[in-house]
Structures are given as structure tokens and as C-alpha cells.
Amino acid sequence: MAAVQTQQEVRAEAKWVRTSPRKARLVVEHIRGRSVPEARTVLAFTTRAAARDVEKVLRSAIANAEANHGLVGDDLYVSAAYVDEGPTLKRWRARARGRAARIHKPTCHITVKLAPLAVEAKPARRQAKPAAEAAEKPARKPRASKGTTKPKTTPRRKKTEKTEEADS
Predict the structure, then answer these.
(1) Where are the alpha helices (DSSP H) in the chain?
(2) What's the pLDDT at 158?
(3) What is the pLDDT of residues 86-104, one digit of tens each?
(4) In this structure, what CATH number is given to the domain that contains residue 84?
(5) How many CB atoms lie within 10 A of CB 17?
(6) Closest by alpha carbon to 54, among 115, 62, 9?
(7) Distance from C-alpha of 121 to C-alpha of 166, rounded to nearest angstrom
(8) Would 16 be classed as within a structural domain?
(9) Alpha-carbon distance 25 to 12, whole Å?
(10) How many domains are there within the chain?
């Protein structure tokens, strides 16, 4: 038998959130696969109202990881984030001539899963090359321009006295 390595995953879920699932999915797509500090920054600067709800779920998942599993919050990344559709509240509104109009108030369930970053998965910082290595490379020659990229157009014909006489 081969040893199966299971990766520890922490999750948090917010149910019956009063926002449209479609709107919440647009926000969740921004943080999927990002590290926790990066995801927090993205959510802080997202102007959509659903970003506040997603941020609450992310904070809850980080708190679960730290309290229940002894993980460090900044060493995690968003392994999965998805939004499921919840029940729709149906309401009625009075309209003209004794009629009624339906109002649908959608809800959604937001789920965020966090996993620890693997040592290999951590992005390595690019280090500046020493000046000696930079000097070894020959300088590239600038490319010659191939001309303008504007499409060729025919010049407009100016109206002269002859053309005005011909038009009338």
C-alpha cells in the first residue's frame, strides 16, 4: 500500500447571505488561489458590496485555522472559494390597478477553504543580478521601424470653383 498524504484544509461557510450569488461569485474569483495577505488586500480594495461578506468568511476561516489547527494565518492560501445558490425569498409589491408584482430576493452560501502553503509553492523573490553579470551581456540594437501603422487613406478633394460649378 502506498502512503497517501492528505493536505490539511480549513474551511468557513456563511449561509443565507442576502446578496445575489452571481454578484458574490465575481468577488470570489479575485481571491481564489491567492495567499491570505494578498487576498485580504484585494478584498479591502474591491468596491463591490459582496466583498465585505467574503472578507468576513475569509477572516472566519483564518480564525478557525489558528484556533483549531494551530496554523499561522499568513502562511495559508485560498485553496478553494465558491458561492452556492441559497433559497430565494419571494415578496409581493402592490402595483397600479389592484395588481401585484413579484420581488425575488436571492440568497447565497459562501464557502472559503484555506490550505497551508507548501515550501516549494512559496513564490521566490527575484534577486537583483550583480553588475558584473549585467555588463557581460551585449547591448541590443534598436529595431528599425517598419513605417507607420496608420491605414492609408486618400486625401479629401478640396472644393474649388470648378467643382462647385459642376455640382450645380
Answers:
(1) 21-31, 36-44, 50-69, 131-136, 161-167
(2) 67
(3) 999 999 999 999 999 999 9
(4) 3.90.470.10
(5) 21
(6) 62
(7) 77
(8) yes
(9) 16
(10) 1
